[in-house]
Records
---
Amino acid sequence: MAKLIPILLIVLGLGGGIGAGLWLRPLPEPEQTETEDMPMPDLAHLDITLHDMQNQFMVPLLDGDRIVSVIVISLTLEVAGAEQSAVVNNEPRLRDRFLQVMFDHANSGGFDGMFTSNNNMTLLRQALLETAQSLLGREAVMGVLITDILRSGA
């Protein structure tokens, strides 16, 4: 019986180590499709103009109740030409909703660590586009471009 205890401990240790290794392994990266395989959409027939949002957006990053750094973002909207005036007239509403999206993104940790990673930027762009389209309509706003982004502070 005394000879079985070390063997049993070795087997349990190996089993526990293998189980922990499987449980803690990193998730596989999602497959990236080659951009060469995807045909570029024909935008020649669309009348798309670019609308620069007038001022930059400033999003504070908090640690507890202290501001530890600030994100400064400049945005440009891809707008259907006929809808340019609607965008200009609704810019204060757009700024308000964009700021709320950016605050939510900051509070969920989107601006922590590698905040410029492709995944984080795609999530932010998509959320901003959905917000603009909910306010102005799907045919009015075709895309949101993040033209400048800066994190100042720690």
Note: The domain at 48-153 is CATH 3.30.479 (Tetrahydropterin Synthase; Chain A).
---
Amino acid sequence: MSKRDELIEKYAADIKDKFDVKPDVDLLTKVTIGLGPSIYNLDASKVSGGDEKELETVKKNYLIKKLGMIDSPKLMDGIKTVMDKYGSANRNKHRAVVYYMLCKHFKKESVY
């Protein structure tokens, strides 16, 4: 099993445990591949839910650039919703899981 497959398994378990949702492994795999080598970098592979600057980057680089959404307050509301569901006590929010859940939240699976 490749390192990426191991990470995808870990992400799927996180989605199941934290969000109580059965993950769409095919979509999760596509989201993970889309993140490229950043999934192997400890810092880049995580999202800090308490860092407004980082959340703004998620909005700009993922929701607007990748998913093609129009900037509006509902984007940050969606990010906050996903962060809240992930749990504020959980400091290790995997970027792939956050992006997957945002993709699902905004019903943008067709982008992949």
Note: The longest helix spans residues 3-19.
